[in-house]
């Protein structure tokens, strides 16, 4: 049989939370080891930094905090951080207290993002020794309501990057840290692995950059037009199908697994 690993840029949930979600959906995921999230990659990355001392200032949710705690990475900043007094801009005085032991700023999706948090993040990053790390740079979340646009973690990352004039180390798809985590921690063979995803700029680009075969499913945000762009090789998948259900139907599954036998 083939091992299935779920890889997500969503930093708001821990792998354990995804296991429960999958079980509720009837998806057989046995352990957390079958799930990789950007929060898990971030906690591992920060834990393994050499000579790290101090704490991480986090813009993110509790799922990210849970992963940092499990990795014994000291952190703060998760949750609301409302202004007790207004930030006064006319005389440039700002009533924000900063900590002195911050060695990294970690930015994920933060539903409580506010100007005060941005002030803190950018201020910490003025120290050139403070690392700037992002869980992912996704521009938006998928939404069933076509009239509603949901900005993703990438919108927060870009704001902090622009104001601090610093470029982050981005960990999630399509960037290499996510791939190295999957390859090294889960011991996959890239030549025998296929990436199946529903968004070309992250999933298919992730596969192409890291030497994986790729399949685009059209049950998410992608359309048939995304699947047929040979001029953009980095986001054009090797295969595409309407949905995972289609993949498992009749003749298509036989042909597909014949292909898998050779990779």
TrEMBL record:
This is Phosphoglycolate phosphatase. Keywords: Hydrolase, Magnesium, Metal-binding. Divalent metal ions. Mg(2+) is the most effective. The lineage of its organism: Eukaryota, Metazoa, Ecdysozoa, Nematoda, Enoplea. Substrate binds at residues 8-10, 173. It comes from Trichuris trichiura. Mg(2+) binds at residue 198. Its cofactor is Mg(2+). GO terms for cellular component: cytoplasm. It comes from the Eukaryota. Signal peptide: none annotated. The keyword Glycoprotein does not apply. The keyword Hydrolase applies. PANTHER family: 4-NITROPHENYLPHOSPHATASE-RELATED, FI11325P-RELATED.
């Amino acid at each position: 049989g083939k091992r299935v690993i779920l890889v997500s840029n969503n930093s708001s949930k821990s792998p354990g939370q995804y296991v429960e979600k999958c079980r509720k959906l009837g998806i057989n995921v046995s352990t957390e080891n079958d799930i990789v999230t950007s929060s898990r990659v971030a906690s591992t990355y920060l834990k393994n930094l050499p000579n790290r001392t101090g704490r991480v200032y986090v813009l993110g949710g509790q799922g990210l905090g849970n992963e940092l705690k499990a990795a014994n990475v000291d952190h703060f900043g998760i949750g609301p951080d409302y202004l007790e007094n207004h930030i006064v801009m006319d005389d440039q005085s700002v009533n924000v207290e900063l900590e002195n032991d911050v060695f990294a700023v970690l930015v994920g999706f933060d539903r409580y993002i506010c100007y005060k948090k941005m002030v803190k993040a950018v201020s910490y990053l003025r120290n050139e020794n403070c690392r700037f790390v992002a869980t992912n740079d996704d521009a938006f979340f998928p939404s069933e309501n076509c009239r509603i646009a949901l900005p993703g973690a990438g919108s927060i990352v870009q704001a902090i990057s622009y104001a601090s004039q610093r470029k982050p180390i981005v960990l999630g798809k399509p960037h290499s840290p996510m791939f190295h985590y999957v390859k090294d921690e889960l011991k996959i063979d890239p030549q025998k692995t296929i990436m199946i995803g529903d968004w070309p700029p992250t999933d298919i680009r992730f596969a192409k950059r890291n030497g994986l075969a790729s399949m685009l499913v059209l049950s998410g945000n992608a359309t048939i037009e995304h699947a047929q762009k040979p001029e953009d090789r980095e986001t054009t998948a090797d295969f595409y199908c309407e949905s995972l259900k289609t993949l498992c139907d009749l003749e298509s599954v036989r042909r597909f697994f014949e292909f898998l036998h050779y990779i």
